[in-house]
Input
Amino acid sequence: MDTALPVWITAFLDVPASRYERTVAFWSAATGSNLSAPRGADGEFATLVPPDGDAYLRVQRVSSGQTRVHLDLHAPDQSFEVLSSPGGLTWCAVPGEEDTRPLPRLWAAGHTSLVDQVCLDIPPAAFDAECAYWAARTGWELRETGRPEFRVLVRPGTMPLRILLQRLDESDGPVRAHLDLATTDRAAETGRHRDLGAEVLRVRERWTVLRDPGGASYCITDRDPYTGLL
Output
């Protein structure tokens, strides 16, 4: 594997064809993005284009399965490669040199929000290996958070996405990923997402777990949309 350290990160929603239209419509509205023209041999790829900055959220229509998230790590002069982490999370090394992080969106209720984090959900046996792997692949500092089940990679200032690593309670299974939003008003943001068709699954002290109309879980958190920190 010969990949360069990334200068940009994209989160891809891989959505089965039967759920594609409603999932893409939801995330376009939830993020305040415009959907690009389709591309790819079968029109299977599209970009959620933000009103400012460079794009970092994309969608892919897949034939079957559950909606899932994968990462693309961009670097200048990087050849395209499909790779896998030790715990089985697919990701792609791709060419690119984007550098302008979009700003949080201001909504009618007066709060702001932004998709700004991908959380890797990792069974305990794979946790240390995944943490070491992603620290090496990104070149970012791996840091403890004060909660034993979480570690975070400290992103450079221009990066649009943080990477949070979560050790799950379940004993086994593949590594998977979900999106997290930061917001200045979690109750208002949760209400906005419910109006768009999301379902609230659980409410925690610092975050709320929801399910989008296509069946994928994600979280709205109390983190600052500008810094990503609590």
Remarks:
- The longest helix spans residues 20-31.
